[in-house]
């Protein structure tokens, strides 16, 4: 593992001495199914709208700090007021700001791992303790009673729905119970929400639960991981805190106009999301076949744009996919609770066919 130099370990804040220099371990490949991006080409009409907006935005002026035009578009879509929305430089910035504003020494963040590793990382940056209610090691479903119990003693909760990397959706009833139990704020990270069943979102609970925060991103269903834009929905006083803590110009003018154009054309993404959902089911059915099961492969149902699979020698399979087929997937086999697991992003039909063909060779013929 890479680590900071001795000199840096002595100079950074003591609690940061263990952080590792960022190493994305990125290999350019023909097919990249490693980061849960939307790998489909952007609908032409949306791209044209974005290009037109980008071509005339003034670059000499600072951005609108709160992205108000975009905020209004998002608010109208979600049926809330501008005061219920805060835009950020990707979901990551909002997650970090959530911990920065509401966490800190002496406070506890409750999570339900295996989940998105950034939660624990951001908590560590701001010296927030972690309480973890681990998912069932076989089904990966959360222990509802234990979560509600732990929520009583936590100042912050982050739960993911659909969860990355296990793909399951949280029942609305559980979200409500966690909100009622937690004395602080409960964030439901719905980065993959657009890929889930229609009624899966916890959003309808916003009206009843003043401590609920919903996180969204344009990086997944809307195919714009590169522009860095996410947003939260919450009660106005929660949004005020998000607005107060943020770096005022973190959402630049290019991102604001591109996101606004994309959100105005959001209906165009509907067929792409439908195709990803149907490809997800096709991949799931193929990987659930008896021959894969006999070779020891397990696949879990997913409501996201990815599937979690477990197979003997997963790390080696991932390396061979990369080196022999130029297909990149995410290796989770080193992560606690995810021994021998890989996460496969659902790609285009051609990408998925290439992945299936390669897995047939690596998992079946060579098992
Ligand atoms: N939440 C989850 C569960 C994620 O998987 C991701 C990205 N991988 C994010 C939030 C953040 O996405 P972004 O910063 O691109 O908006």
Specify the CATH class of the largest domain. Answer: Alpha Beta
Amount of helix: 25-40%
According to DSSP, the number of beta strands is 12
The overall average pLDDT, rounded, is 96
CATH superfamily of the largest domain: Type I PLP-dependent aspartate aminotransferase-like (Major domain)
Within the CATH hierarchy, at the fold level, what is the topology of the largest domain?
Aspartate Aminotransferase, domain 2
Low-confidence segments:
none
Strand content: 5-15%
Shape-level CATH architecture of the largest domain: 3-Layer(aba) Sandwich
Plain-language structure description:
This protein is α/β, with parallel strands linked by helices. It folds into two domains: 26-41 and 269-366, Aspartate Aminotransferase, domain 1; 44-264, 3-Layer(aba) Sandwich (Aspartate Aminotransferase, domain 2), CATH 3.40.640.10. It has helices at residues 6-11, 44-56, 68-78, 90-102, 118-125, 144-152, 172-181, 236-245, 253-264, 270-287, 290-294, 314-325, 349-365, and strands at 31-33, 85-88, 108-111, 129-132, 156-160, 185-189, 212-217, 230-233, 298-299, 306-310, 327-331, 341-345. Strands 2-8-7-6-5-3-4 form a seven-stranded mixed beta sheet, with helices on both faces. It has a five-stranded mixed beta sheet with strand order 1-11-12-10-9, sandwiched between helices. The longest helix is centred in the C-terminal third of the chain and has 18 residues, at 270-287. The chain is globular and about 60 Å long. Residues 36, 90-92, 116, 160, 164, 189, 191, 217, 219, 225, 230 line the site of 4'-deoxy-4'-aminopyridoxal-5'-phosphate (PMP).
């Amino acid at each position: 593992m890479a680590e900071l130099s001795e000199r840096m370990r002595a100079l950074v804040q003591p609690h940061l001495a263990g952080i590792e220099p960022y190493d994305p371990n990125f290999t350019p490949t023909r097919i990249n199914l490693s980061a849960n991006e939307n790998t489909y080409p952007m609908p032409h009409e949306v791209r044209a709208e974005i290009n037109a907006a980008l071509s005339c935005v003034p670059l000499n002026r600072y951005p609108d700090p709160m992205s108000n035009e975009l905020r209004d578009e998002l608010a109208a879509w979600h049926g809330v007021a501008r005061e219920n929305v805060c835009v950020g430089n990707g979901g990551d910035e909002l997650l970090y700001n959530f911990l920065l504003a509401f966490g800190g020494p002496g406070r506890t963040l409750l999570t339900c791992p295996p989940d998105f590793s950034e939660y624990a990382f951001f908590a560590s940056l701001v010296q927030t303790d972690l309480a973890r209610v681990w998912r069932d090691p076989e089904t990966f479903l959360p222990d509802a009673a234990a979560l509600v119990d732990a929520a009583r003693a936590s100042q912050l909760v982050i739960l993911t729905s659909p969860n990355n990397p296990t793909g399951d959706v949280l029942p609305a009833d559980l979200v409500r119970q966690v909100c009622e139990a937690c004395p602080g704020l409960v964030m439901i990270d719905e980065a993959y929400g657009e890929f889930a069943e229609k009624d899966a979102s916890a959003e309808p609970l916003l009206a009843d639960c003043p401590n609920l925060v919903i996180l969204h991103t344009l990086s997944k269903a809307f195919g714009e991981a590169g522009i860095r834009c996410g947003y939260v929905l919450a009660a106005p006083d929660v949004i005020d805190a998000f607005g107060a803590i943020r770096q005022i110009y973190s959402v630049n003018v290019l991102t604001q106009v591109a996101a606004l154009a994309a959100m105005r054309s959001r209906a165009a993404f509907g067929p792409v999301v439908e195709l990803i959902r149907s490809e997800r089911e096709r991949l799931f059915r193929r990987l659930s076949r008896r021959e894969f099961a006999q070779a020891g492969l397990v696949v879990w149902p997913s409501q996201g744009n990815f599937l979690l699979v477990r197979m003997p020698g997963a790390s080696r399979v991932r390396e061979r996919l990369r080196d022999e087929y130029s297909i990149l997937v995410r290796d989770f086999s080193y992560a606690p609770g995810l021994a021998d697991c890989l996460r496969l992003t659902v790609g285009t039909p051609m990408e998925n066919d290439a992945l299936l063909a390669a897995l047939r060779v690596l998992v079946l013929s060579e098992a």
